[in-house]
Design brief:
2 copies of one chain form a homodimer. Chain A has one domain: Jelly Rolls. Helix content of chain A is 0%, strand content 65%. Chain A has no helices and 11 strands. In chain A, strands 1, 2, 3, 4, 6, 9 and 11 form a 7-stranded antiparallel sheet that branches. In chain A, strands 5-10-7-8 form a 4-stranded antiparallel sheet, with no helix packed on it. The relative contact order of chain A is 0.27.
Chain lengths: 104, 104
Amino acid sequence: MTQLKNVTIIKKANIYFDGKVTSRTVLLQDGTKKTLGIMMPGEYEFSTELKEEMDIAAGKLEYKIAGGEWETIDGSGVFYVPANESFQLKVHTVVDYCCSYLAE
Amino acid sequence: MTQLKNVTIIKKANIYFDGKVTSRTVLLQDGTKKTLGIMMPGEYEFSTELKEEMDIAAGKLEYKIAGGEWETIDGSGVFYVPANESFQLKVHTVVDYCCSYLAE
């Protein structure tokens, strides 16, 4: 799915870590939400509220979900973070991602 | 207008200057196009094909359209770039912008 159709986009960007991580919020017709984001190289930690699907479209990173091992994605890949969990990222090259918030 | 409704967004990011300038392309129902973007601090030069409206929602920058003077926007502001023209930017803090491509 290369396009998201019939959606609402919130114009104002979400800006974290002095702009090294930014995203735009997309509201889908089914009531769910995605963010399309960019991460510059660096190390970051995030926490979830809902379960998240992190779909990496470009870039190289390592991720570690609390209690787990470091895993690498280079170029493209998907990982899931449970609700109410934290995860760490080491971003090595500019990452283009789509995060989907899942109700479970 | 804080939201763009009933639009199509292209998932893949537009990435320039090693990720220091990134944007997402939004296709509107009237056939026009906008990009929602982020610029990290730095100096950049761009060229237009269509006339562009650059609507700055956050950040501080200076801009100079070919043949013109340097002008400053701090926080919010709009400027226009004619079709087939170049413009320079000095971005001082993270800029959140919406660029509208105008048919004239």
